[in-house]
Amino acid sequence: MSRDVFEDLFVLELANNHLGNVERGLKLISTFAQVVRFNNVRASIKLQFRDVDRFIHKDFRDRTDIRYIKKTIDTQLTFEGISTLVKAIRQANCIPMATPFDEASVDLCTELGIPILKLASSDANDWVLIEKIAKTKKPVIVSTGGTSQKDIDDLVTFFDNRHIPLAINHCVSIYPAEDHELELNQIDYLRERYPTHTIGYSTHEYHDWTSSMMMSYAKGARTWERHIDMAVDGVKVSPYCSTPEQIDTWFKAFHKAKEMCGAPGTQKRLPPQKEIAYLDALVRGVYAVRDLPEGHPLTDEDVYLAVPLQKGQISCRELMRGEVLLRAIKKDEAVMIDAIDSPYSSIPSLKQLIYNRGL
């Protein structure tokens, strides 16, 4: 299997931010997947799997003073709940990924058809787990926070001998990380030492979602990972997690970095803006089939697609089932971004793009 599976892949780490609540997890998946779709990037949404009953020793399950144990127990999901989230990730046109922290969780990844596995920095020398992961023959991304050079060399040799694609993420396991702690020159070091492997960047900084993306791309990183969360349901977002607005900024920094660096001969060219504008003029806008009342959730039968696309109007690219109308719309009227309850309308940069295009 080619290492191309990792090329320009964004990993959005959901971790346990679903808080053990499937509905919250679905909300996170839906919102971030729309940001992915609007920015036209290739992304996975990654979960964490633990066989909690065996992962935590029975004598320590009541130790609420140990944060890691308490959070693991409090955010535990059933198999059905996990399956629901994985299905939602696929339906949102993202790639489901998982970090298995034990051997039973590797089996769960296989059962759910997870196509790419993540090996956490803390497990980079857990050979019982590594050998179990290798038996799946699935591509693996490993983070290298706090990992010794010998451990990385051993991992590379191990996966190379088994012809299993391995991407190696530079990572500083500090949550959150200050700018002076990022050590981005390690990307250069990893690329030189492992030239046949995709090198990536797993990042936890929290001051700037643009600079490190542009620098890491220019240094040759080609897969990236960030933790994600939203301040909904009364939950405060941790500093090392990124909100939808911040991920949108991150993706746009990626596109700007590619524009400034130029496309290599192994990739398709980047179309110039005048070509994109020409094609955007042919994109169909969303119009109402009949008079629709305020509060009505849109279905396929409520709208039709036609040109021209007007400024502020949603197009076939943004149309999602179930968007709720914030005001009544008359038959044949354009459905505007301000008229629907959508993540697009809550992110100023996305909303502005919609208003800048069309007639």
Specify Rg, calculated over alpha carbons. 22 Å
* Quaternary structure state of the chains depicted: single chain
Shape: globular
Query: What's the arrangement of strands in the largest beta sheet?
Result: 1-2-3-4-5-6-7-8
Please report the number of helical segments.
Answer: 13
SSE string, helix = H, strand = E? EHEHHHEHEHEHEHEHEEHHEEEEHH
Offer a quick outline of the entry.
Helices cover 37% and strands 16% of the residues. It has 359 residues and is α/β, with parallel strands linked by helices.
Describe the SSE topology.
Blueprint: E1 9-15, H1 22-39, E2 42-49, H2 52-55, H3 67-74, H4 79-91, E3 95-100, H5 103-112, E4 116-119, H6 127-135, E5 140-143, H7 149-161, E6 166-171, H8 185-193, E7 199-202, H9 211-219, E8 223-228, E9 241-242, H10 244-261, H11 273-280, E10 285-288, E11 303-306, E12 324-325, E13 340-341, H12 343-346, H13 348-356
Parallel strand pairs: 1-2, 1-8, 2-3, 3-4, 4-5, 5-6, 6-7, 7-8, 8-9
Antiparallel strand pairs: 10-11, 12-13
In words, what does this structure look like?
The radius of gyration is 22 Å and the shape is globular. The chain starts with 8 loop residues before the first strand and ends with a helix. It has an 8-stranded parallel β-barrel, surrounded by 5 helices. Strands 10-11 form a two-stranded antiparallel sheet. Strands 12-13 form a two-stranded antiparallel ribbon. The model has no long low-confidence stretch (mean pLDDT 92). The protein has helices at residues 22-39, 52-55, 67-74, 79-91, 103-112, 127-135, 149-161, 185-193, 211-219, 244-261, 273-280, 343-346, 348-356; strands at residues 9-15, 42-49, 95-100, 116-119, 140-143, 166-171, 199-202, 223-228, 241-242, 285-288, 303-306, 324-325, 340-341. Helix 1 runs parallel beside helix 4. It is an alpha/beta fold.
